[in-house]
Design brief:
Helix content: 55-70%
Length: about 240
């Protein structure tokens, strides 16, 4: 791996770790017992997730383009606006970043995990679960949410908007607003993963960490927040190529 690829991958790792640290952190603050933020509500979660994405994008944007999401990386590569040679290093870095962010949340809230009896609440601080389990509709929700996310990112990459494949520091604010809007409008069904690194990597961390009374990992559902975002990203790429290629 040359220095350029290493630097880009490093900032994908850092950005994704920050995204998950703040994003999963606000969920832990809301759900875990004896937390100052307990029962803060969905609006608090969505705003904090938007700001978490903004911080990750702002920090890593000038160096890596701040994908912070395998669905974004694959979608941009399929659309021809990102090199396929960087796809594997980026996705590996994003997954490691998501895992690291989740571990930091656990270490930070360790006493509160111990004080919480509900294993479902503990799992929810790492990954998502549908409000109503219907795999077809759950998958559809993730496809639509990710389609909107990647569509806007691709729009930001068009000449006249901004640079760095639409995800440089200048793109941090509109992407944050997009995440907040997605959460408040479309997040009620699945919790709006729209990012495999945000869901699968922390779910793996949950399975590995010595969490008291952690219960199950819900692997039966875990494919939905991976497949949905990837499909949504590829649909975006096809549409982008149809219009611009």
């Amino acid at each position: 791996m040359n220095d350029v690829v290493f630097t880009k991958s490093l900032f994908e790792f850092i950005g994704t770790a920050i995204l998950v640290l703040f994003g999963d952190g606000v969920v832990a603050s809301n759900l875990l017992k004896k937390s100052k933020g307990e029962n803060g509500g969905w609006v608090v979660v969505t705003i904090a997730w938007g700001l978490a994405v903004m911080l990750g994008v702002f920090i890593s944007g000038p160096y890596s383009g701040a994908h912070l999401n395998p669905a974004v990386t694959l979608g941009l590569a399929a659309a021809g606006t990102f090199s396929w040679s960087l796809v594997v290093p980026y996705i590996v870095a994003q997954m490691l970043g998501g895992f690291t962010g989740a571990v930091l949340v656990y270490l930070y809230y360790k006493d509160h995990y111990d004080a919480t009896d509900d294993p479902a609440a503990k799992l929810a601080t790492f990954c998502t679960a549908p409000a109503i389990r219907n795999y077809g509709r759950n998958l559809f929700s993730e496809i639509v949410g990710t389609f909107v996310l990647v569509f806007v990112i691709l729009a930001l990459s068009i000449d006249g908007n901004t640079f760095e494949v639409g995800m440089g520091a200048l793109g941090a604010f509109p992407v944050a607003m997009l995440i907040i809007a997605l959460g408040m409008s479309l997040g009620g069904t699945t919790g709006y993963v729209i990012n495999p690194a945000r869901d699968l990597a922390p779910r793996i961390a949950h399975a590995i960490l010595p969490i008291k009374g952690k219960g199950f990992n819900d692997w039966e559902y875990s494919w939905v927040p991976v497949a949905g975002p990837i499909i949504g990203g590829f649909i975006d790429a096809a549409l982008y190529c149809l219009i611009y290629c």
